[in-house]
Design brief:
Layout (H helix, E strand, L loop, with lengths): L1 H7 L10 H18 L1 H4 L2 H31 L4 H32 L16 H8 L3 H7 L5 H7 L2 H17 L5 H21 L3 H16 L8 H26 L3 H7 L1 H10 L6 H10 L4 H14 L2 H18 L5 H14 L9 H13 L7 H5 L2 H26 L5 H9 L4 H10 L1
């Protein structure tokens, strides 16, 4: 049988046609171009390469979330199961997010890299982010989850609003019973069509990665890092500590290695690295998690929800950056104020998607509540935020992958045979793209 499979298997693709190698090469070229030719790299057309690719991805994220959530709920016959999976996912999200926030606070206190910076921030540089953050205060944030219209939510790509309507629509479809099966099949076919669009768009990932990386290095460059390199290094180290220790222990508890899992999703991680957006790899991640033995309904519910409620990298960033800004401005935060950071950051991080800049907006919201005096200090980290957004996105997507496997295990719907077999073998990215486009 094995010989027959090998005989019928398609020939391996040349290395230069493998997507993750193309993206990695594009990132390296982007760094070189941005470093050696900064004037060329900061050209509007170079910037447009990265921005355009992100817009292409965002174009289909809302339809993908709607279709996958509706399909995931509609395929479950028992409404109680949907609630059970949702509650388990939210409990996991809150517990692990708390670990991320606490880890950021601990590291920020142990390694006070902001002390001695004697910064004089420019409040005007972050005014836009502060205005956006004001909309995230308690009551306004809750009301904003409810869309004025479904079409408007889909058009704006507001993840939380689309998620709310998709959950309600899924339950309504479930209640229709046999009559709803035809519409459910149409939504499934629509999802396959949208995934096909993603498969086409992903062919432009190397171009987008080159443009984003070249522009970032060209505009900010090594010299722009200055004293802030300490914050970047500490954040990178803290994110790595969280992934390999916290998520690693969770993975080990379920029965697999975090290193094998990261190797399994390396294609998606490289795409995220190049685009600074965890949304750019959402369809491929969902396909790979199903192949890994996670049930389709759990994947359809946990992954889209995690993109709004399970942002581990963003949580680490918010606590670390808050302490860094306070240290740089010479503001001593009491124990109660630091405890307030945990509570506020837990709330403000909800609904922040994996798109570049979302972490900066949530930071503004957190500082506004904790201590308004710190808000102008956001300008201190503004110039290097782009260098940290990649790690935020990488941590977020890894955390959501582990969360889905854990909830599948908790629900008793994790296929261990598939899990171990697929973690040990090489996955051809083109195979995943084909599966996404054909369903």
């Amino acid at each position: 049988m094995a010989a027959e499979i090998r005989a019928g298997a398609p020939a391996a693709k040349p290395w230069y046609k493998i997507l993750y190698l193309q993206v990695l090469t594009a990132i390296i070229i982007g760094v070189i171009v941005g470093w050696l030719w900064p004037d060329f790299a900061t050209n509007d057309w170079i910037k447009a390469l990265g921005d355009g690719f992100i817009k292409l991805i965002k174009m289909v994220i809302a339809p993908i979330i709607f279709c996958t959530v509706v399909s995931g709920i509609a395929h479950i016959q028992d409404a109680r199961k949907v609630g059970r999976v949702g509650v388990k996912a939210l409990v996991y999200f809150e517990v692990v997010s708390s670990f991320a926030l606490i880890l950021g606070l601990i590291v920020g206190n142990l390694i006070p890299v902001g002390h001695g910076l004697a910064a004089k921030p420019d409040a005007a540089a972050v005014a836009t982010y502060v205005k956006q953050a004001e909309a995230q205060k308690s009551v306004d944030f809750v009301l904003n989850i409810i869309p004025d219209s479904v079409v408007g939510a889909l058009a704006r790509g507001d993840i939380l609003q689309v998620l709310l309507f998709a959950i309600l629509f899924g339950f309504a479809l479930m209640a229709l019973g046999e009559r709803g099966h035809r519409l459910r099949d149409i939504i499934d076919d629509t999802a396959h069509g949208v995934f096909g669009v993603i498969a086409i768009v992903m062919k432009a990932a190397p171009i987008g990665a080159f443009g984003a990386m070249a522009y970032t290095i060209g505009k900010y460059g090594p010299a722009a890092l200055g004293n802030l390199v300490g914050l970047i290094a500490v954040f990178y180290a803290t994110a790595a500590l969280f992934v390999f220790v916290v998520l690693g222990l969770i993975a080990r508890f379920v029965g697999f290695s975090i290193f094998r899992f990261i190797a399994y999703i390396k294609d998606e991680l490289l795409i995220v690295l190049g685009t600074s957006s965890s949304e750019s790899a959402l369809p491929q991640l969902m396909e790979k998690l199903e192949r890994l033995g996670c049930s389709k309904p759990v994947v359809g519910l946990v992954v889209p929800t995690g993109y709004s409620f399970n942002l581990d990298g963003t949580n680490i960033y918010m606590t670390l950056a808050t302490l860094f800004i306070a240290q740089a401005l010479g503001v001593d935060l009491s124990f109660s104020q630091q405890a307030t950071i945990l509570i506020v950051a837990m709330l403000t991080s909800k609904g922040a998607s994996g798109v570049t800049g979302a972490g900066f907006i949530t930071l503004a919201a957190t500082l506004t509540v904790v201590n308004p005096v710190l808000v102008p200090g956001m300008a201190i980290v503004f110039s290097v935020d782009k260098f940290m957004s990649e790690v935020r996105a990488l941590t977020n997507i890894t955390g959501n992958g582990i969360a889905t496997v854990f909830v599948s295990w908790w629900e008793g719907e994790l296929d261990y045979e598939k899990l171990h077999v697929n973690l040990k073998k090489q996955i051809d990215p083109s195979d995943v793209e084909t599966a996404i486009s054909t369903g």
